[in-house]
């Protein structure tokens, strides 16, 4: 079972993740795009990376906005290193 990170560890990790926040035991971020097509393309890229990491985010999309939430189910819905790793991956996809 994955070990939850402490609040201090999460705060340290968030210093490297621009725009991400820690709310309700999840790492969250909203991403904006020029249009629906770009938003869905981003979601598709996330899907492939998440499947590789065997860690799947909560994704919510309306038109050109994508909201991502990350927590680890086998850690009781808390934030773990798995979430931080996927958040960093998602950031790299967004910035490319």
UniProtKB/TrEMBL annotation:
One of its GO terms (molecular function) is 4-alpha-hydroxytetrahydrobiopterin dehydratase activity. It comes from the Bacteria. It is an enzyme of class 4 (lyase). Keywords: Lyase. Its EC number is 4.2.1.96. It catalyses: (4aS,6R)-4a-hydroxy-L-erythro-5,6,7,8-tetrahydrobiopterin = (6R)-L-erythro-6,7-dihydrobiopterin + H2O. InterPro entries: PCD_sf, Pterin_deHydtase. NCBIfam families: PRK00823.1-2 (NF002017). This is Putative pterin-4-alpha-carbinolamine dehydratase. It comes from Fodinibius salipaludis.
């Amino acid at each position: 079972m994955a070990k939850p990170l402490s609040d201090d560890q999460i705060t340290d990790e968030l210093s490297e993740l621009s725009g991400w926040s820690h709310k309700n035991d999840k790492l969250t971020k909203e991403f904006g795009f020029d249009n629906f097509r770009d938003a869905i393309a981003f979601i598709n890229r996330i899907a492939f990376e998440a499947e590789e990491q065997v860690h799947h985010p909560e994704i919510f999309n309306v038109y050109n906005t994508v909201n991502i939430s990350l927590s680890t189910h086998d850690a009781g819905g808390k934030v773990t290193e798995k979430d931080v790793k996927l958040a960093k991956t998602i950031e790299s996809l967004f910035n490319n």
